[in-house]
Amino acid sequence: xxDVLVEEVRVVQQFQDVFPSKIPGFPPVREVEFFIxxxxxxxxxxxxxxxxxxxxxTELKSQIENLLGKGFIRPSVSPWGV
Length: 82
Fold this sequence. Notes:
By secondary structure, this protein is an all-alpha fold. It has one domain (6-38, 50-81). Helices cover 27% and strands 0% of the residues. The chain is built from 2 helices and no strands. This is Retrotransposon protein.
């Protein structure tokens, strides 16, 4: 579960020589939850995305997939994040 530290997992405790003390790519604990309070009736601002060269777009997609896979980011379900 998200509330359990890696060090608290029994198999990690039993086999400490196999598990590294730092796990690369493991999502960090977020110390602060951020919120943006909106005034009632506020609607998303619509702007076109920046144009990118094909090679830049390919790199962007690669980095996004990498970060999604590691759990550092997640897809947005917000109308503001479209």
